[in-house]
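Lab notebook, bench 4. The sequencing result for the construct came back, and we need a structural model before the next group meeting so we can plan mutations. Quick request posted to the team channel:

Model the 3D structure of this chain.
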Amino acid sequence: MVGAYDDYVELYVRWFQYAAFCPIFRAHGSRPANEVWSYGPEAERILTRYLRLRYRLLPYLNALAFELWLTGLPMMRPVFFDFPDDPAAWNLPDQYLLGPALLVAPVLEQGATSRAVYLPAGAEWYDFWTGRRHAGGQTLTAAAPFEMLPLYVRAGAILPLGEPILHASEPQRIDEIRVHPGADGRFTLYSDDGRTYAYERGDYTTIHLFWDDAAGRLGASATPAELFAGPWERLVRRP
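Done. Here's the predicted structure in token form:
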């Protein structure tokens, strides 16, 4: 694919999977063509999956960017940032948190189909792909076939997912809110015009979401129709 590098497709797919969970999502390559379909049908299927998921995560990412602007709290941070009392969390050079909800473990070894993932103590964790729940404070051997990046969601997390869209400037409403039982949770949704700096003058909307674990109930400070794609009760999903 590039000179004598026959394994370039694997490298590119693994890099793309990782990049989908970075604050800035950029695709680079040394080929004349770099579109997702130019790497063959198997790679196209995998790359398309992560590209679509990235767009669905925009409500979550926009909220993290707003929090960064407001408080300086980083979107992408080392695991010890949220789990300072767990000694094992201070020695994880190849895992990180994207916001408070997502634990990302990129695949860094050629030909790997699994990798060790440490789940921080002090929380329970859900496998993003399967919904299986795991206790914190343990190291798992996570499945990592070619199409899968190990990804976990913290118990208590509220994860908003947007409608499928083709580009970031297209209007997007939320069509799914995933709640992860096991702890109380809260999350602040953020919305602005998506084009200007009017948010610096306070021209934006925030909605506070609250998960009451004991009651099994999700509440919100407001439910404006222009932000949600359907009736509130139908949007809530659990693993």
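The mean pLDDT is 93.
Will bring this to the meeting.
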